[in-house]
Amino acid sequence: MYKNFHDLTSRYFDGNLMESEQLELKSQLASDAACQKIFEDYCRLWDESGQKAVLKAIDVETELKRAKKRIVFRKPIFIGLIMKAAAVFLLAGLFSSIYIYYFYSPASLIAAAETPKETPAITQEISSMFGTRSKFKLPDGSTVYLNSGSKMVFPIQFKGDVRKVELVGQAFFDVIPNPAKPFVVKTSGIEIKALGTAFDLQAYPGTGEISTTLVHGKIVLENELDGVSKQIAELKPSDRAIYESTSKTVKISAEEDLDKFIAWKDGKLVFFNDPIEKVAEKLGIWYNVTVKINNNEMKHYRFTATFTDEPIEQVLDLLSISSPIKYKIKKASRLSDNSYSKREIIFN
Question: What domain range is 39 assigned to?
Answer without folding.
Answer: 2-114
